[in-house]
Amino acid sequence: MNLAAHPVVASLTPVFLLIAAGFLAGRLHWIRDEAVKDLSNLVFLLLIPALLFRTMSAVHVETLDLRPLAAYFLAALGLLGASIAWRGFNRRSVVLALGGVFSNLVMIGITLVELAYGKEGLVTLLTLVSIHALTLLTVATVVLELAVARENRANGQAQPHVLATTWSAFKSALIHPIPLPILCGLLFAQTGWVLPVVVDKPLQLLGSAFGPLALVLVGVTMARTPLGGEIRTTLWITASKNLVLPLLVGVSAWAFGINGLPLTVMVVAAALPMGANVFLFAQRYEVAQEAITAGMGLSTAMALFTLSLVMLLMSWIG
């Protein structure tokens, strides 16, 4: 058997070669820190919305199967709660738990799933993407604010009502360059209209630029990510994100009677490395920044092996 021709190898190799190219560029300082921020804005504010809107503009809601989403979030929220209970209810515990369940669905997942499973697999993934951040980040924000309120009450400080905190978190997660174009694309699809060629072609070109640039930026970020310090905590986060979550999602999906491509996409999505949004939470709440930074780098580096293993297993199961 020609290993290079195996579909798992054929889809993973371009992904990790582009990340490696970005890592090299970062190490050699070909891209300045200021440029990384500008390129990230380009990806998130222009290229991703174009890709997401165009893909979902031809998808009809009645054809979507929402059971895989229920299976995924049952596992993810269950692991999040168990991790918080294990470490204790405080800001650090919540941020570390979020690091163990929040996948990099956009920067790595979209390109990988499209290469490996085609447009049908991509639509399944984007259905998850549309509410992934909305669900996990909103829950994490509310739990974090409750933890902060608990700490402040102990210090005699007043806090906003939990409903106000929940509504604010929900709005911030919904009005975002990832779920918003997905929802807009779905709404457009329900009209029965078709995008004119003069609009569709630029969106296609912008969307095709997303994959390579996003993966190179992942590599550049890794080159600037220190892996030292809090090794034990970092290993726990990586094991939770790369191995425990996909196992739980697989069991949950099996319990829901899900099989075939939806099962594979959900498990692979769960096996993706940690997403960068977790670091933003660590920064905002000024806790576990070193552990999350190291965890993000190690999770991405180890995904070369763990993600390959998960995809290979799912190719046999499927």
Protein model, in words:
This protein has 318 residues and is an all-alpha fold. It has one domain (3-317): Na+/H+ antiporter like fold (Up-down Bundle), CATH 1.20.1530. Helix content is 79%, strand content 0%. Helix 3 (67-87) runs antiparallel to helix 4 (91-99). It is globular and about 60 Å long. The mean pLDDT is 85.
Number of helical regions: 12
Runs with pLDDT <50, length 5+?
none
Cα end-to-end separation: 19 Å
Secondary structure category: mainly alpha
Shape annotation: globular
Largest sheet: none
CATH topology: Na+/H+ antiporter like fold
Helix content: over 70%
CATH architectural arrangement: Up-down Bundle
Tell me the β content: under 5%
Radius of gyration: 19 Å
Number of strands: 0
Mean pLDDT: 85
Could you give the order of the helices and strands? HHHHHHHHHHHH
What is the CATH class designation? Mainly Alpha
Number of structural domains: 1
